[in-house]
UniProtKB/TrEMBL annotation:
The keyword Transmembrane helix applies. Signal peptide: none annotated. Keywords: Membrane, Transmembrane, Transmembrane helix. This is ThiW protein. The chain crosses the membrane at residues 12-30, 42-63, 69-89, 96-122, 128-154. NCBIfam families: thiW (TIGR02359).
Length: 178
């Protein structure tokens, strides 16, 4: 995989925004719902692609854990959502699929993947679907905010400009040849 310095810089900026706003969380059950992470996941998936999205989600979760503002449950939820949203957008070029990918990836798949992390690593007793509802609530909130932001960017022309600056085809989400 070739490293794109522009994408790496944007990924670092999204990580910085997500970490700096990590104080904005909503405790629901045993998890901390963090809508800013899901906003960053959607933006990373759409503008950077699935692998940079996963890297951004991992770095954000890692730094938040080091700072004590996150939990180990942030890893599976955020990374799966960032990947699926980015992959679906890259593959089909439809924003709606990026939103659905983030919500399904984080809310359903990520929520279920938290079960082994919670029980085996954190020593908590939980049902396999215990984290699905809180994660769905968090990811839907962040994804709605992302959809609104992307809608504003699209109407202003900034969406297409940003895609071009990152060397991506606006229609397909694939790298443009030069």
């Amino acid at each position: 995989m070739k490293v794109n310095i522009k994408k790496l810089a944007v990924s670092a900026m999204l990580t910085a925004v997500a970490v700096s706003l990590s104080g904005f969380s909503i405790p629901i059950g045993a998890s901390k719902c963090f809508p800013v992470q899901h906003l960053a996941n959607v933006l990373a998936g759409v503008f950077l692609g699935p692998w940079y999205g996963v890297g951004m989600a991992f770095c954000t979760s890692f730094i938040r854990n080091l700072m004590g503002t996150g939990s180990l449950l942030a890893f599976p939820g955020s990374m799966v959502g960032a990947f699926l949203g980015g992959y679906l957008y890259q593959r089909f070029g439809r924003l709606t699929l990026a939103y659905i990918g983030e919500v399904f990836g984080t809310g359903i798949l990520g929520g279920m993947l938290c079960y082994p992390v919670a029980t085996l690593v954190m020593g908590k007793e939980a049902a396999i679907f215990a984290y699905v509802i809180p994660f769905l609530m968090s990811t839907m909130c962040g994804t709605v905010i992302a959809a609104f932001l992307i809608g504003v960017l699209y109407k202003s022309g900034a969406f297409q400009y940003m895609r071009r600056m990152l060397d991506l085809d606006v229609q397909t989400g694939k790298a443009m040849g030069r």
